[in-house]
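User: I'm preparing a small set of examples for a lab meeting where we compare how different chains pack in three dimensions. I only have the primary sequence for this one, and I'd like the structure in token form so I can line it up with the others. Please keep the answer compact; I'll paste it straight into my notes.
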Amino acid sequence: MIDRILGWGPAALWAAVLFLLSELPGTGAGLPAGTDKWVHGGLYLILGLSLAWGKTRTGSGVPAVLLLLIGVGYGALDEWHQSFVPGRDVSVGDWVADSAGVMIGLLLFSGFSSRFRVDKRSPSQGTTTTGSA
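Assistant: Understood. Below is the structure token output for the 133-residue chain.
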């Protein structure tokens, strides 16, 4: 139980943070021009990383494509949610940036975790030896 909380908790917590950020009225207030999509991508990159963390931490057999669909779907729901917030609107461009962020987060985690994964084979399993000298 605690492994599941420690594994999937960060993704759930980050999804809640994204929801709360979407509740803020206004659009990109205070952001420099042209940075909106980068911010969306960065926020959803964190969601992708935390979904990948959950899979790894819990040893879940959830396919990576399902994690991608969860992240992309959450981004779509988040955009729809913004249609109900005063001063916010639905943007396909924002959703594309969200989706790209999730995908990059999943790929980054996969790349980094594979570099640090310990090879579980014993030294004798990975080499061939000959009996003659």
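A couple of notes for your slides: The chain has four helices and no strands. Residues 92-116 form the longest helix (25 residues).

User: Perfect, thanks.
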